[in-house]
User: Fold these one by one.
Assistant:
Number 1:
Amino acid sequence: MTDGVARKTGRWALLSPRTRKNLSVAGVVLTLILAWELYKLIWSSLGWIRPVRPDDVVMPHVWDMVIELFRPVRRGGNLLILDLLVRSLWTLREAVAGFVVGGLIGFGLGVLFVRSRLAERAFMPYVVASQTVPILAIAPMVVVWGGAIGLPQWMAVAVIAAYLTFFPVAINTLRGLRSPDPNSLELMRSYAADPSAVLWKLQVPSALPYIFTALKVSATAAIVGALIGELPAGFQNGLGRALLTFSQQFAVQSKKLYATVIICAAVGIFFVGMVTLAERKFVPHRETLEPEGEMLARASAGG
């Protein structure tokens, strides 16, 4: 038995890291689907209704949710999946715009705080406090203010996405910019490197892993912000409107709501995947980095 386990472990180790990761994700998804269907089967056979009633309205079969995607939204209309994919492009546009703006603001705040302890002490409490205000309370105000100054609806929604994006980026940027070894900073200063060179050639490269970790969190937050922002904005073209419409029809069309949730999750996964691809491009593996001393000498010399 031990030999069999060792052989299986050896086969798993022979797989590439990406293959192992994909198989792990597929395993988690299949486990969740199996748990959903087993709950429905067991609770239905025993007549249990708590904690969740296992009928086809509250808990439809997973395959029914998927099949619903390939049925018309309404009689004579487009397939639900086509309608949701078009809506996802609108929501993704709002999320990406907010993600970029919020990321830049967060990075700027991180740089400001690492440069000035006074600014950090003065503004950090307000940055933290901003995240304690419920987004549902802020979204209507942003929409109203945006309309008052002539801001297009989708840009007002992007502002809400930016609001949820900037905080993790600011905190992780600050932590990352402070992550270089003090000896490395001293070496840069011994080469008479100016603060700008220290920032861009030592601190920012060291902070990239922290920043991209925050960006992956912020990518999902931007999608959530866009979905929430579409509701008070009365935006008709996004996924948020579809969620609201189908939630009002839950008693008779619950499968449409579940199918929409699946598409929302897929959009979030796609967005995080794009950020992960950028991370692989801009954050080199440890083993491919230059020796620290040589890298710093080249950087301080402008090479």
Note: Residues 2-59 form one domain.
Number 2:
Amino acid sequence: MDRVVKIVGVPLDLGQSRRGVDMGPSALRYAGLDDHLRQIGCRVRDCGNVEIPVRDELPAEGGMAFLPAVVEACTAVYEAGLEAIAEGEIPVFLGGDHSIALGTVAAATERGPAGLLWIDAHGDFNTPSTSPTGNLHGMPLAALTGQGSSQLVDIGRPGPKVSAENVVLVGLRSLDFAERSLLRASGITVFTMREIDEQGIGQVANQAIRSLAHLARIHVSLDMDSLDPTEAPGVGTPVPGGLTYREAHVLLELVAASANVGSVDVVEINPILDYQNRTAKICVELVASLLGQTIY
């Protein structure tokens, strides 16, 4: 199959308090993402970066004060995604913090329902009333399912962008107290690290794929803090006990073999906290696995 990949950089760091993830797109490009994808048979078009409001010109308190700027940025992401999909391309969005998914998933679901595979150490299921920090990168999954701030929920078009039964969260191991109750009540399929440890990544991956098999395509949202910090140290919110290098590859290889991946975002790479761009290099390899690279 002739796959055309459109790379869209989203250097957004307004969703969290720790600086540095705005350099994620540059780190991934420096790690050779385009060349790697060409080597596996993709045609690649890099359209540069979405324009992001300058953080130092925004309110110093951050958090919810950045809401209008995040809405503006994610609306631009949504429009870039629509353009790529209309042209028959697979958009690969390079974050940036995880709030970019408000735009990426809105674009992926514009033409009809799509599955959402959310690979993350965190639930990202807070709302402004439950978040202990007010950081917007902890709210996108809740907003995509219709909960929380209407300004976040309505990015791209009014209302929820994905039904809970069409969402699978893999790699979870860190939740805020109130967020736990919201996520349990949501109906989202969740595989924590405990399930992965008990069942093995292959079984969990196949269950996740089966949960989304009724949908024509899926969007994969890969937060690099889903990996263990010993594997991927360059992330803003590391949590011990995550996926190994091989577990992450197996998960994405199985998804590539069994599902129609229509769009991708990769988020939360912080080069300031990394060692020799290690996390970005691993991410490049994972994206290649997701888009069809095999061992043999």
Note: The chain has eleven helices and eight strands.
Number 3:
Amino acid sequence: MRVVISAGGTGGHIYPALAIINKIKEREPKSEFLYIGTHNRMEKDIIPKHNIPFETIEIYGFNRKKLYKNFKVLSCFYKCYQKCKKLIKEFKPDIVIGVGGYVTGPVIYAASKLGYPTFIHEQNSIPGKCNNFLASHVTLIGTSFKSTIDKFPKEKTIFTGNPCSEDALKQPIMKKSEFGLLDSKKLVLIVMGSLGSSKINDYFINLFSAFGGKNYQVLYVTGNAAYESLKNIKVPTNVKLVPYIDNMTRIMKSTDIMVTRAGASTLSEIIALKVPSIIIPSPYVPDNHQYKNAIGLVDANAAIMIEEHDLKGDILVRNIDTLINDDAKIQNMKNNLSDFGIDGSATIIYENIKKIIGEK
């Protein structure tokens, strides 16, 4: 199979794309790929490490506050559209796949206009603007949430789950000792998305000392941009700061409690691996979609939620202390997470891709 695939901006888009690539490679080892990403976001660093041919386009998301800047956005979109047409014609793919982020707009639109089969995947419960735009142009749409099906044309939308869930189960476990922690002691993993959060980092600066002397360890992921300013902060010996962890699911398998945002890919991995979690949804995303992603888990007692505006004093430490020492509640959370999983998400996507290629 020859595949052009595009996703960008955050790990929440990039890692589902990699999960789809891995599944295609597993089923068809001789497959060839071309990944189209932005020139200045994290995919430019991640994708080449996986030895996947990578092309960049200069594209920007719409500016909701300074509307005059969108003239440049529209100009870039047209240039990217022309470049993507050229790349796609040269590569001659069997299918073109978009897995989220504004970078997928010109890629999928160009493929559609050229007559290639196209598939997009929506990770969040509320579709993003780019996927809403592309919905009328694509061959097939996959969703992570059942409830999202109704927000797209029903005749070409299917519930696939998030491909990260299947990929997560296959990853080898990462030991706590790889971070200088004790394998024998419980672990709390704190990560605020692939890019980190300056607001949460500021909150934790005065909170790290509260973890001293606890009967568990804390692995705190700052985000690459903030690490230099935080790495010299004095923290207790049971707290470790790291800028980023590639393939987070490996350490999630050694994690007792995860404190996290509510990105759809992260939630799919939490569900697949049955990791008890305290969720702090980002209030800075369109349509408050992280809250909507997570509320189903919270209502089913499969996760705990603390909204960012409620992060005051040591409320988070107190919640961690209570949960990590309540074995019955942790087990109940794990049991309830079982109700949210879907088996073989990446396989479902692969099989449906094969169907639409056959319809070309």
Note: Residues 70-91 form the longest helix (22 residues).
Number 4:
Amino acid sequence: MGRVGFPLDSVLRRTLRELDATLDMIQFKHTIFALPFALVGAVLAANGIPSPRTLLLILAAMTGARSAAMTFNRLVDQAFDAKNPRTAGRSLVTGLLSRPFAWVFLGCSSVLFLTAAGMLNRLALLLSFPALALILGYSYAKRFTWGAHFLLGASLGCAPLGAWIAVRGSLDWPPALLGFAVLCWTAGFDIIYACQDTDFDRRTGLHSIPSRWGVGASLGCSRLLHMLMILSLVGVGRVLGLGGLFYVGVAGTGILLTYEHSLVRADDLSRVNRAFFSVNGCISIFLFAMTLADLLRRA
């Protein structure tokens, strides 16, 4: 009996390790960044809470798209990750996950995204193909342009746009403005995060705003982008006639962004992770909560 139990126990431990490595590869915990903004787009489109079926398909599409994007990024950047001390412990670099496994996982994630989009409506399906090309193509951007931050922002900006289309089956100006807000927010915090790799990017020939203009100028650019985000959110509120609770969410977002920028300086990047992970997660959740509360209060 012991000889049977030991292999089973070993298989279970290995399976759990690989599951943990897979979740780490796709940075599952960072789903908190984009998903609340997708839900903001969904509740605004529905002027309340969409049907359970629509919400489930939006969640499936988001999971598939984000998993595909992160897996592809790890695959194409594996050689760079191995050279960078900050990323040398990633699963594909250490061999904890294999490249064949990652390619299969990428294919399954892409199929999940396209299938969920197709089950939503025709426009969602048609736009899912260029959206997938955008979120996968971003992984090559740092090889050619310092504008990679904005391509990442556009990728996450698709979340509220896609959710609006999922609910209404049409594309309008309010979600485009919300998508632009997400683009500015994402590009801004990605620039902060990229400041950690300024020297590495310069040595290896990768492009980023910090590697081209330095950390000080990059932090200034990030602040400007986050100001544009706040202005865009105000525009969304005006166009849709949203109420006071939504603007509380916008004001809270501004306060949190101010705090985020207080954590990092050109001569001290030791708190970048707190600024990047903790604060941005709070921003997306808080804005979604206030948007939903505003819509439900008026219902």
Note: The mean pLDDT is 89.
